Every structure is written in C-alpha cells, then in structure tokens.
Amino acid sequence: xxxxxxxxxxxxxxxxxSGAHLPNYVRMSRVRIVAVADIDLERAxxxxxxxxxxxxxxxxxxxxxxxxxxxxSITTPVFQHAEPALAAMRAGKHVLCEKPIARTLEEADAMVxxxxxxxxxxxxxxxxxxxxLWQETKSLLTGGLIGELRAVNxxxxxxxxxxxxxxxxxxxxxxxxxxxxxxxxxxxxxWLAGPVSAVYAVTKAFKDEYPVRGVxxxxxxxxxxGVVVLEFQNGAVGTWYLTWAAPTSHGYTSFDGTEGSLLMRxxxxxxxxxxxxxxxxxxxxxxxxxxxxxxxxxxxxxxxxIEHFVNAILDGTPLVMTGKDGRDALExxxxxxxxxxxxxxxxxxxxR
Length: 352
What we know:
Elements: E1 6-11, H1 15-25, E2 31-37, H2 41-51, E3 55-57, H3 60-64, E4 71-74, H4 82-90, E5 94-97, H5 105-118, E6 122-124, H6 132-142, E7 149-159, H7 170-173, H8 177-180, H9 182-192, E8 196-204, E9 209-212, E10 215-218, E11 225-232, E12 237-243, E13 245-257, E14 260-265, E15 273-278, E16 289-292, H10 298-315, H11 323-342, E17 346-347
Parallel strand pairs: 1-2, 1-4, 2-3, 4-5, 5-6, 7-12
Antiparallel strand pairs: 7-13, 8-11, 8-17, 9-10, 11-12, 13-14, 14-15, 15-16
Helix pairs in contact: 1-10, 4-5, 5-11, 9-11
C-alpha cells in the first residue's frame, strides 16, 4: 500500500488485546496505534493510555470512521466478532480476527465473503501457525519423511480455568472445549494432514461448573470432553480425544505413514519435542529418534502473527493464514457438534 506507516485500531480491550496485540504493535516501527474501542469506556481509556493510542471510543463505529485507521484487530469475545469485522471490511479496513472466527458458519461465511467483496486483507489469530514445531512438522510431512499419510491420532488434555463466564454459555460461545481449545487443532489438522473430509463424534459434559477467575460458575450446555473419529480427503484416518476436565495436562499428536512415523508432544518448560522413525533404516538403527525443536516463546509467536498481518498490508507479502482458513477450521468444529447431536457420521463440506 502507498503509506509507509500503518494506522491501527483495536476493537476490544480485554486480555488478548493487551496480552498479544497491542504490545506487539508498539514494537513495530511502521505501525501507529491510532485508537482503541471497548463497550467499557473506562477500560478503553486505560488501555489507550497504557499503549499510547491517540484516541479511545465506546462505539467501534466511531473508530472505524477515522480515515487514518487502515487496519483493525478484532479482539472482542467470539459473540462480538462478526459485526465489527463486517463493519470494518465495509469501511475498507483490513482485519485480523482472533480465534475462533465466529460462533456459527453463517457468520464466518459472511465475513469471508465481505472481505473478498471489499478487497481487504483478512487473516486469523492462530499464533501456533508460526511455531517452529508446527513448521518443522509440516516440512517433514510434505518432504515425504513418513511416506503417504495413513493415520493421525491426538490426545489433548487439560484443566480449565476460564477468564469469563460467557465461555460456559453456548449461546454466547458457540460451544465448549472444541470451539475454544479445539479450534487450534482443527486448523492444525486441516493444514498438516487435511483437509478433514468426515467426522463421527461423541461429546460429554462431565462437570457442571468450572472456576472463572477463581469463582465456581455453572455451565450452560457446553461440552468439556469429546472423542472424534476423523477421515481425511487424502484417505487417512484418525482419532482425537480432547478435554478440559482432566486433572492434569498431557497430550501428543502422532502421524503414521507408509514408511515411518512422527510424534510431536510438549517438552519440559514448554519446549516441544519431535520424534521420528523410518522403516527403511537398517534394523540396528530403527526406533524413535529425538528431533529437538528449539521453540520460540508464545509471546514471540504472537508477534509473528501480527507481523504477518502488517507485512501483508504494507509489502504485499502473501498470507499464509487466511480468513477462509479460520472458516474451514470452524466447519470441522460445527461438523463435530452436528455429529454429537445426531449420532451420525458427518461428511464435509457441510450443506449450506
């Protein structure tokens, strides 16, 4: 684009704005934080003061009316993603939207269509896409290390402590552990092994309350656990066990192919570890081999997703993660919910 300084607006002044977006925008010499907006005017004021924004608003439409804002981050709760994103696109602003893209596929489709109609850049906030672990795994898989992919199996267990009550209200959140935590995995599965072509799922709500900022809070029709059988377009199959009701955190993802296997799991102090095997090696050399991946810290992954957005606008750098990728990840989650409700295998894409 013509200007060399990108005017940024941030809509939503909660934890993800001050934890991942604003501190990284201020690091960039080609970015100027023009304004922030939040329905809580005092929070907008204090956020603007903290990060040096020139203005703050209660109504995001006032932020979007400024011609010196060229792009926005949407860092509101998920039930407030679609409306400001659509308004921003119609105003000609580029959009970086936090995950998940929306609560429903209808909202997501509208966002993707509007970005195309308006000719704006639209990307998502999946920072693990910029982790070394995911990138190394992608490189090994596409490089043919394990041959043709046959199976993907993953376990992701944790103990939820949630930042706001709306996470436990399906009408606001769109669902429970799958749409919140699992949306990252859905994106990963599509990118590393997919696309996903069908699912069969069983979900459960084992606990009726969770701590929200330390306060026990009742759930409202959201799942906390599920098991999914996966089918992929390339013929591979898989399984996925996900829960935020576990007493401890643990997990792994394995990829099995015609010539070997790859296993990725978290390591000590957050440093992931990658293990590989290859069936064509001599017997004395066969077995799991550690491939250490010196991971970059999560805050730096957030910086790289912000940088990805800025570079796409100012330099025309191609996006590696689009709004449609966010939409397609949500479609996997919606198929899981539909399968759990109907007790049927659900093929993708879903009927529109």
